[in-house]
Amino acid sequence: MSNLHPNDRREYARIKVSVPVEIRTESGIGPIRGATADLSLSGCYIETIFPIPIGTNLDLQLSIETVVLIAATVVTCDPQVGNGIRFIRMLPEDREALKAFLQAAQQAQDSESGVLSRTKDATEDLRTSRHTLSCVFSY
What we know:
- It is built from one helix and six strands, in the order E-E-E-E-E-E-H.
- By secondary structure, the chain is an alpha+beta fold.
């Protein structure tokens, strides 16, 4: 799941997936609940109308099949949109659970886009067949 985009500095490609997240800041305010907009093994983007300042250290709880605990830091702040988060540290078993979740999510998305592509091709074939038939019967 390495990143394939040459201009992107991320170590891992992010997958567009909404995962419930609970955020605790170093100031002790919270917890703040939200959801990811995208997710990878090294970070995520969390949409929120009240973004957290860059440099803030966080403790995250991602709710996938299990609860994954992650120490993280805010790396981008987009007012009234959200925050880019870099993962700093997690237990090896949490990392493995997240990796398995991301692989399954990527496979599901790849499968879904394959089905959509095949559906689009079948629809186009049907249109071509109908056009051919209408040309044959119009003579």
